[in-house]
Fold:
Amino acid sequence: MDIALVGAAYNGLKFAKDALKLSLDMKVESESRVQVHAAMEKLGGVQDSLFELREQLFSLQSENDGLRRQLAEQASWQATVGKYELVTSPGGAVVYRFCGEPQHFACPSCFHKQSLQFLQDRNVMSGSFVCTGCKSEYRVKPSQHIR
Structure:
């Protein structure tokens, strides 16, 4: 059901209600006036129901759009997850490694929060890499010893 269709039905009922009111105002005999007044009250109730229905429809469509966005985000994240594998690095850290080029590593802590943060090489002898997101350090490369 489309919001425009509900709006058109609402406008049609409003026109009918206005037409009945006009005929009531033309001072027809009292019995007809009572019947026209009762019909106007019923049309008013139908109008109110249509208005509530339109509001509910709008709310459901908004919720549906939000759920579709969430599904799209989840599908995008799943596609990203498929490009990484959990490995033990040469330095002994358990990190996510990209399965393509350029080879890089991702922070496992941030990864589980559905945030992709690349580990940056600190270029130190300990072989530590740092996460740009949570600032955790991981020994990705083996330690180098001073000679």
